[in-house]
Protein: DUF3360 family protein
Organism: Desulfobacter hydrogenophilus
Amino acid sequence: MVAHKEKSYGEKRKKASEFKTRAEYLDHELTIMKFRRWRVNLPFRDYGIEIEDVVPALAATIGKVVMVTAMVAAFADQYALTPAFIAENVRLEMLIAGAVFVMLFSAFLNPNSNLAGTHGPMIPLIPIVAAAGGHPLALGILIGLFGLILAITKGGSKLMNLTGIGVRGGLLIYLGAVGLIGQIGKLGKWATAGGVSTVSFVVISVTVLVYAYLARIQKRWLAIPLCSAIAGIIAFTMGADFSFSTPPGLPHFDPMWWWGTNTGWKMGLPNLGHFIAVIPFAILAVAMWSPDYLGHRVFQELNYPKEAKAVLMDVDDTMMVASIRQAIGSCLGGGNIASSWGTYMIPAAIAKRPIPGGAVLTGIFCVVAGILGYPMDLAMWEPVLRVALIVGVFLPLLEAGMQMVSNHKDSQSAGTCIFACAFVNPVFGWSAAMLLDNLGLIGDTDRAKTLNWNEKLIIPGIMFIVCVVSLGLVGQLPGIPGIF
């Protein structure tokens, strides 16, 4: 008996005009795609590129400029490097991310892997890395190695599956609320320092109204470009200072220039002592990946139709791509520390778009921004930057977390998670709440009864110990001095 060959994406595809609403068309697109894992996937053969893909691509590019600049600037402050070094290194990272990793992996080889972005929670730890005698190249190589180990053993997906609904919701609520308050506060300080304190109030007020209206008409995926543009126009009209300062150009591409003793980082190549010094920081960076990746996957699950499981982000594959990108990017001279790209995934999920279509556009936008230079200035301008992060990342995180906490049992787990996050940090809060939730000490006791002892105690317990020990070694536990 001859088996029927499954229809391809092109054969299943229908015109948007055949559906009553645009949302129905986008849902249908998500349900008919099935990507080829670690094989060549091509636009319009395996997936489409729609107008909705432009928004997450713009959000990702803005987020990339902002986060990489913050990361490289943190390194530069510790190693006495100049602003010219920061601009040059950010250009390099934009081209590495855009021309190579975004399109090669997430658009063509494995569209189930999210784009490899920047590991924001590691930025405050950079001064401690430097004080411990760490070397950026040694740190990047070890993060890549440990990340590959976790990806190959499928530890990332296992930890995601062991995280209960209440713990997920609590983690998202904490990240969203703290980030939202932080961004509003930073915008206010910038406006006050620039002598235009009223700008902050007006920009945030208008942003709230526009975002609420977009949510009402179910067009939240437009929030980042629209709100950022309005914020920039308002701020400039009210007298806020802005000027373009980064001219077009290309960075150095020779790795030995970047890792020379008198050029680039001016540190030379790392020795064994450098690798030993960064081990706890590399372990902590990889340990913090799981809650980060979990939050991004949740947005797809909340916004995609239930039948669209084939296009969901694969946590282990994303970890593998981030690990490869980290090791190679560091060897080429980049100062980025990689993670799942939240400023891409969150708006893409809200816009009901799969990973690869927007990945193609993100790669192009990153290359253009890196070469031209001027778009980098605009993306880093405070009103544009802060509003983009508020409406594109932190408000959606807060909303998604609140949606997940739907009953008393979930609220108990969420509350414990939020408390533990506030006590130390999100990686501690997630690991502690996951352990307590799986043991049945908080949250849904019926769920705990369905787990075996590996899932209840062994795996969550090991994760908790790894997190606590890593945090303790680098001085991130309250009241306990670090060894490094």
Observations:
- The radius of gyration is 22 Å.
- The CA atoms of residues 172 and 401 lie 5 Å apart.
- Residues 51-473 form one domain.
